[in-house]
Design brief:
The complex is a heterodimer of chains A (about 450) and B (about 325).
Chain A (H helix, E strand, L loop, with lengths): L3 H15 L6 H17 L4 H15 L2 H4 L4 H16 L15 E7 L5 H14 L4 E6 L6 H12 L3 E2 L6 H15 L3 E6 L7 H13 L4 E7 L6 H12 L3 E5 L8 H10 L3 E5 L7 E3 L2 H8 L5 H11 L2 H13 L4 H13 L3 H5 L19 H11 L3 H5 L6 H11 L3 H22 L2 H7 L7
Parallel strand pairs in A: 1-4, 1-5, 2-3, 2-4, 5-6, 6-7
Antiparallel strand pairs in A: 7-8
Chain B lengths: L12 H34 L6 H13 L4 H17 L6 H15 L14 E6 L6 H14 L4 E4 L8 H12 L2 E3 L7 H14 L4 E4 L9 H18 L5 E7 L5 H12 L4 E5 L9 H9 L3 E5 L7 E3 L2 H9 L7
Parallel strand pairs in B: 1-4, 1-5, 2-3, 2-4, 5-6, 6-7
Antiparallel strand pairs in B: 7-8
Helix pairs in contact in B: 1-2, 1-11, 2-3, 3-4, 4-11, 5-6, 7-8, 9-10
Classes of the chains: A alpha/beta (about 450), B alpha/beta (about 325).
């Protein structure tokens, strides 16, 4: 999960505040010191940390908090708001030219992930009905053009290249190629360069001017340290960036760069790279990211993913069945299928509130193999068995285990879990009176 | 050339002397930007001041800004605090020298030399996260060994990233060394297997294995890396000579996580620090040495072939602390 370390440190500090009925200035100071350390360890730029802490202190020791009945909660709210603000406040979209084609130039240091990002963006916008054209203008790194061509083929987006010609000429050529072929979005992949390399920087300025570049995106590796800010600042001074793309956020990067660049350059993060796969790019939502960092979960993204994956008709049927406590293994299979469409399990888990606090889940890559086993077992059953699992006795169990490449114990476990779930559903959905008597939720009584 | 000879003729003392000078010059150039940021701040802090607690705290901040990390910054400053108490130092300018000494000591905790070859082939494997410069570092190393008239063979173990095999192929042709490659998408352990056997059959002196960049949190990919190491060791009948973690000098505290998790997957023998020619401070190597006992063995300070050098802690710190040469 991105920001994992930062996230758990911050949550630790805030957790201690949460329960407190009264806060004095000393409590606030202590917490702020720990927040400061957590941010520094997460590579947040030094000056940014200073301002951030000052801002929170000002609000936290004011009447807003100390006078409140739940001061701890108030501090958390303030940190959340300030974090959101720090990362840009609201979502910033790619700005499209009023008259197509929109020319986007992708720049950055070596190894930050420009080529991959270019392809991912092309794929994303193709999905939104655009006709992108990828332009191979990295003529320095060996085989960079080949890399873009392979990616372009994968996502069925045309790639314009002129071999190792002058990048400025390539950009010019791409522009007329796009006009002739009706491409409305041009993504220029440039060579990686050091921000202090004057020669290469002026090359970018030239491309910008000749190719009527509409938007320049700086690609920044989320693992960058304190230097991220210098890099972003220099690129911004030379080129006037439109925004940033933060890559490699699927590692355990502490992502301090993300928290700093907006504050220092004033340019928003527009996209984040979240996996090596070609569809591993997302729009960046500061508010959602802030609540993810603070362990409040990101229900909005979760719901979006669910809506995209779930078949409405099936969902209604399922709800009806749950009401009747008629949940069969067939239904279970359907559900698994839909869940899988939402993406890898560990990414989904991170969207749930409070998951970051569960100790044994921390730093663990949730592995889908357990689910795969369950799927295999259910798939090895006959439709009859799925509908009426009670008929599965000894020899059927052996056959199912054999067919699914699992052991009889695994089949037994699944059946037992299924029975427990059904029992629970019965209690859940049964008459109100019984539920109360049984005391399903002792802690609510 | 700024490295010790490992094959063929041994370096003469004059060569070594000249090389050492060249190394300093290169490092100085490479670190010029770093110096302006880091040393300027240390200078500003320590000139004309008395030693007091505020000074120590400000030093801590400067170190953290240099990517040393909170723990290592605290450690270094704690050393300074103790020493200045013991040696009764009151003039802040003396702290600068002391800091340099402590840094060198930290960086020298583990040997920083590449292991000398004992048996053919000398096998190096490069690992690291995406985009740190593994392939380029391999090209530079291959060039270096080729200069020493060693017979070098490269293994294109990055079968995942589009264009990676071609990239290494271009380098191999340019340098004039052999390459073992499979198709994109094939099993990297199989490439390694073939490469070791090719190196043995062709009586090569050096085998350098490239691997695909991978984020250290991807459990499956890390397991795959462990498998490559096991296959190579089995075919060799001994351990690999060097397994180097390539780290981008611009990396922040995440390098610690990289070091830790790569260490768990393979038996790392050291670090190759790349891209030290930017404004990045490379301070992370102090944290790597302090918290993970990982020594830097190679540094890349530019884009030329011979810009990859043996790491010399003293020269590194000396270059950091040398008076700023404004004329360049």
């Amino acid at each position: 999960m991105p920001f994992q370390n930062l996230s758990s440190r911050l949550q630790g500090v805030l957790h201690r505040l949460r329960g407190k009925g009264r806060l004095n200035e000393k409590d606030v100071d202590e917490s702020l010191r720990e927040i400061r350390l957590a941010l520094l360890e997460a590579d947040v730029n030094f000056k940014v940390v200073r301002d951030f802490i000052a801002q929170i202190r000002e609000r936290a020791v004011g009447h807003e908090v100390l006078g409140s009945l739940t001061p701890g909660q108030q501090v958390i709210r303030i940190v959340n708001e300030e974090l959101t603000e720090l990362m840009g406040g609201t979502q910033a979209k790619l700005s499209l030219a009023s008259q197509p084609p929109t020319v986007v130039m992708i720049v950055g240091l070596q190894g930050s992930g420009k080529t991959t990002t270019a392809a991912k963006l092309a794929n994303l916008f193709r999905g939104r009905g655009h006709r992108p054209l990828l332009v191979a203008a990295d003529v320095y790194r060996p085989a960079a053009i080949k890399q873009l061509k392979v990616l372009g083929e994968q996502i069925e987006v045309p790639v314009f290249s002129m071999g190792e010609a002058n990048p400025v000429d390539i950009a010019k050529g791409a522009l007329s190629h796009a006009r002739n072929n009706n491409n409305d979005l041009i993504l220029i992949d440039t060579a990686g360069r050091l921000h202090i390399d004057q020669g290469l920087m002026s090359e970018l300025v030239q491309i910008k001017e000749t190719a009527q570049v509409h938007e320049i995106l700086l690609v920044v590796d989320a693992m960058t340290g304190q230097d991220a800010v210098n890099v972003a600042q220099t690129f911004n001074q030379e080129l006037d960036l439109g925004g940033l793309v933060l890559t490699k956020l699927d590692g355990d990067a502490r992502g301090g760069a993300a928290l700093s660049v907006k504050a220092v350059t004033g340019k928003p993060i527009k996209f984040v790279g979240v996996s090596e796969k070609i569809d591993g790019i997302e729009s960046f939502h500061p508010d959602r990211m802030a609540s993810r960092i603070l362990g409040m979960g990101d229900m909005l993204t979760l719901i979006e993913k669910a809506v995209a994956a779930v078949d409405e008709e099936k969902a209604e049927k399922m709800a009806a069945k749950l009401q009747e406590a008629e949940f069969t293994l067939e239904d279970f299979q359907d559900q698994l299928e839909q869940m899988k469409q939402m993406g890898p399990l560990d990414q989904i888990m991170n969207l749930l509130p409070g998951i970051g606090n569960i100790k044994h889940l921390k730093g663990l890559e949730v592995d889908d193999s357990h689910l795969k086993k369950i799927e295999a077992i259910i798939a090895s059953m006959t439709p009859e068995e799925r509908r009426r699992p009670q008929i599965i006795k000894g020899s059927r169990r052996r056959r199912i285990a054999l067919g699914s490449g699992t052991r009889v114990q695994d089949v037994n476990r699944l059946l037992k879990q299924y029975n427990q779930t059904r029992q629970m559903l019965k209690q859940f959905m049964g008459p109100q009176k019984r539920q109360k008597k049984k005391g399903m939720f002792p802690f609510f009584q | 050339m700024v490295w010790k000879r490992m094959f063929g003729a041994k370096s003469s003392p004059e060569d070594l002397e000249r090389e050492k000078k060249g190394l300093l010059q290169k490092l100085r150039l490479g670190l010029e930007k770093t110096k302006q940021g880091f040393i300027q701040k240390v200078d500003d802090l320590t000139s004309g001041r008395r030693v007091d607690e505020n000074l120590f705290q400000e030093l801590e901040e400067v170190l953290i800004q240099g990517d040393c990390g909170v723990n290592t910054a605290l450690y270094l400053v704690e050393q300074l605090r103790a020493r200045s108490r013991e040696e009764k130092v009151t003039d802040a300018s003396q702290l600068k020298k002391m800091l340099a000494e402590e840094m060198v000591r930290l960086l020298e905790r583990k040997p920083t030399d590449l292991k000398m070859p004992t048996e053919k082939p000398y096998v190096i494997m490069m690992v690291g996260v995406n985009g740190v410069g593994k392939t380029t570092t391999i090209a530079k190393l291959a060039h270096r060994f080729k200069q020493e008239k060693a017979k070098v063979i490269l293994a294109a173990g990055d079968t995942f990233r589009a264009g990676a095999v071609e990239q290494l192929e271009v380098w191999a042709n340019r340098i004039g060394v052999e390459l073992v490659a499979h198709q994109a998408g094939s099993d990297p352990a199989a490439v390694a297997f073939d490469a070791v056997n090719a190196a043995k059959a062709r009586d090569s002196d050096v085998l350098i294995l490239d691997t695909a960049g991978r984020l250290q949190t991807k459990v499956n990919l890390m397991t795959e890396l462990g498998k490559v190491q096991r296959v190579v060791a089995r075919e060799l009948g001994r351990d690999l000579d060097e397994i180097l973690l390539v780290v981008d000098a611009g990396t922040g505290q995440n390098a610690l996580s990289q070091g830790k998790l790569f260490q768990e997957a393979v038996s790392l023998t050291g670090v190759a620090l790349t891209k030290l020619d930017g404004t990045a401070k490379g301070g992370i190597v102090l944290a790597l040495a302090n918290e993970l006992d990982l020594a830097v063995k190679l540094v890349g300070v530019g884009e030329q072939y011979d810009d990859l050098q043996d790491f010399d802690p003293e020269a590194f710190v000396q270059a950091l602390f040398a008076p700023l040469n404004r004329s360049g």
